[in-house]
Each structure stands twice: as C-alpha cells, then as structure tokens.
Amino acid sequence: MGKIFVFDLGNVIVRPMNVKMLYEMLECKVSYEEFCNFFKKDKSVDDVHRGLISTEEHIKKILNFSGSNKTIEEYISIFTGPIRNGLYEDTIKIIEVLKKANKKVCMLSNLRHIDFEWFAGIYDISNFDGLYLSYEMHLMKPCNEIYEKMIESLNASADDVYFFDDSQANVEAARKLGINAYCVTGDTIRDVLVKENIIEIKDK
C-alpha cells in the first residue's frame, strides 16, 4: 500500500479560534484566566470531545460557569462565526496536491461535534478518504487505541501512515506505534514536508 496522509484539524488545517473574543462576546462575569482554565481544562471539555455529553450540555456548563446571559443559540452563533480564523492556505494546498496525485488523505482529530459542523460548512470534507473523530470514536489522542483503530480501519500498516499534528505528545504516541509522525502547525507543515522529502510542492 502507498503512503496515507493523516492530518490533525486544529492548528494544522484550521487556524486557532479567538478565545479572548469568545470571552468578550459572552460578556463573562469571571476573569479571562478563570474562563480559559474552565474552557480548556474542565472535565466537561474532555467529555464533549469524547462524545460523552452533548454540545448543548457542554455549552450550558460554560454559560453557567462564566455567568453569561447568552442563550445556547447565541453561543453557537458566536462559536461558529466571529471567533473563527479560517483555514491554513498551505495545508489546504498540500491536501489538493495529494488528492491530485491520488494519495489517500484522512483526518484524525480531537474535536467537538460543533467544531466539525463548522468545518464541514466551510470546507469540502469529501476530500478526505477517512475521518477519525474523537467525539464519534469516544477516544482521544494520544491514547494508543485511537491510532490502532484508525490503522485497522485503513487496512494498512503503521509504516504506511504519515501523520501531522501540532501536539508533541500526540506525535510521540504515534511514533511509538510505528507511524511516521511529525509535529507541525499550518505555518510550518510545508517546510517540514519539503525538508523531509515527503512530497514535492512546486508552488506556495
């Protein structure tokens, strides 16, 4: 089997969201530091990424903690609109190059259902030959099982897979399983691909 290219979503395909803007638009009653700590580290964050609780339940927890008077609908409107910063052009170009070369392209991401819905609204997800999403699999990187299930689904060997993620922990876990893994962001992925002689990209 030929090379299979697997991309993380956040900070590799899509630019990071503006959490400060989310905080401001929600008109939170807690400090920004407190909001960030909850938004990134509360147990409900892990649960919604694993698909163990619904989007609505998670949003309720954020609104209650922050003291925001916004409705769930208003939160969704903010979360899927103003705070989003779009896609990395280099990564999108790389995916196009790979597809034109008839390479298999997949996505493996820790994300919420609401994140995927937003992404699917601005990008043609049919470009992916496989989608491995934490909220559907009820697993999250860097646990071994999520990589193993992906490899099994692809009917491939670990050495066939080239994986690009912005988390060093996720990359190291993948490497231990024999996957060709690289720590990149959308700003660095092109240089890494060229330096490692993985694919040829003629124009930026």
Characterise this structure.
A 5-stranded parallel beta sheet has the order 3-2-1-4-5. α2 crosses α3. It is of the alpha/beta class and 204 residues long. The mean pLDDT is 95. It is globular and about 55 Å long. It is built from 11 helices and 5 strands, in the order βααααααβαβααβαβα. The two termini are 28 Å apart. The protein folds into 2 domains: 4-15 and 86-195, Rossmann fold (3-Layer(aba) Sandwich), CATH 3.40.50.1000; 19-79, DNA polymerase, domain 1, CATH 1.10.150. It has helices at 19-25, 32-41, 43-49, 55-66, 72-79, 89-100, 113-122, 134-137, 144-154, 168-176, 189-195; strands spanning 4-7, 104-109, 130-133, 161-165, 180-183.
Care to give the gist of this entry?
Helices cover 48% and strands 11% of the residues.
List descriptors:
2 domains, Rossmann fold, 11 helices, five-stranded parallel β-sheet, about 200 residues
Please state the structural category.
Answer: alpha/beta
Termini distance? 28 Å
Low-confidence stretches: none
Number of domains: 2
Number of helices: 11
Tell me, rounded to a whole number, the average pLDDT: 95
Report the sheet-strand fraction. Answer: 5-15%
Number of strands: 5
